Amino acid sequence: MGDAHRVGVVGLGVISRAYLDTLAGHPAVRVTAVADLDASRSASVAPGLPGVRALTVEELLSSPNVDTVLNLTTPGAHAEIALGAVGHGKNVYGEKPLAATLAEAHTVMAAAARAGVGVGCAPDTVLGTGVQTARAALAAGSIGRPLFASAVMVTPGHERWHPHPDFYYTEGGGPLLDMGPYYLTSLVHLLGPVRAVTGASSRLRAERVIGSGPRTGERIPVEVDSHVSGVLEHVAGTLTTITTSFDGVATTASPIEVHGEVGTLAVPDPNRFDGDVRLFGLGDTQWRTLPPSAGYV
C-alpha cells in the first residue's frame, strides 16, 4: 500500500466526531489537520488526534499536507469552503447538502471540473445493507415492475437535541436539504433518475425553542420552510411522493415504500447503513424480512 491519503477537516461541530473516529481506523487515510471558524474548537480537538495540526481555515485549504478537504461546516458555508479547497487544487468531500442553493452547487461543480479535482458529497449510507438489499430485491423482480413509491421523514425538529440548531432554520437548512438527501439519493438509486418535480412547502412557526445544552430555552428564528411535500416523476415512469417535515411529532409510515405489480417493499431508514428490508408479496398474509444480501454494514 502507498502513502496514506491526507485529509484536512474543516468544521468541528457535532457530526465531526463520527468522521474523526471512523477515519482514525482507516489504514489508507490520515487526518493531518483540523480547522474551524471558532479557533478554540480546533485548538481543543487537535491535541487528542496524534499528528494532527490545528490550523486556520485558510491555512488548511492551502496546506501542502492536505490532499482532500472534508467539509463539515454548516450548510450556508458549504459552497464557500468547497470553492476555497478547489481553488487550491484540493479534492473536497462534504456533508449534505452540496450547497445551500442550486446555483452554488453548479458553481462548485464547474470550478472542480476546470481544476481537475474531485467533488464528493454525503450521504454514503446508500451503500449500506439496507438500501443495497432493497436494490437487489428490486433487481431480482421481487415486486415485479415498480409502479409508485413513497418516502416520509417526520420529526418535531432537531432543536430538541442539538445545542446549536440555528443552521437548520436558515438558508441551506430545512427538512428537505437536511434530511431529504438521504431519501432522494436512495430513491434515485432504487428507481432511477428523476425528470420532473412538483412540490409545495409551508412554514408553520416563526420561532423554535432550543431544548438542550447551554442555550436551553433560547428562541431562534425560522427563516426557511419547515414542511416540504413533493411528487417525483422518475424517467422510468414511476411516481414517488415525498414528505419531509420538522413539524410532525411521529409517524408509523415506513421511511420508503416501493409498490410493484406483485408486491410491496419496505425500505429501512436511509439515514442508517443497516435495517430490515421487508417484503409483502401479492397473496401473502404477512410481511417477511429479507436477509441482507448486499452492501456494507
From TrEMBL:
- Oxidoreductase is among the record's keywords: yes
Lyase: present as a keyword of the record?
no
Q: Which residues form the signal peptide?
A: none
Q: Which domain of life is it from?
A: Bacteria
Domain GFO/IDH/MocA-like oxidoreductase residues, every copy: 131-265
Q: Which Pfam families match?
A: GFO_IDH_MocA, GFO_IDH_MocA_C3
Listed GO molecular functions? Answer: nucleotide binding; oxidoreductase activity
Q: Which SUPFAM superfamilies match?
A: Glyceraldehyde-3-phosphate dehydrogenase-like, C-terminal domain, NAD(P)-binding Rossmann-fold domains
User: Which InterPro entries does the annotation name?
Assistant: Gfo/Idh/MocA-like_OxRdtase_N (IPR000683), Gfo/Idh/MocA_oxidrdct_glycsds (IPR050463), GFO_IDH_MocA-like_dom (IPR055170), NAD(P)-bd_dom_sf (IPR036291)
Q: Which residues form the Gfo/Idh/MocA-like oxidoreductase N-terminal domain?
A: 6-119
Which keywords appear in this protein's UniProt record, sorted alphabetically?
A: Oxidoreductase
Quote the protein name from its UniProt record. Gfo/Idh/MocA family oxidoreductase
What is the organism field in this record?
A: Streptomyces europaeiscabiei
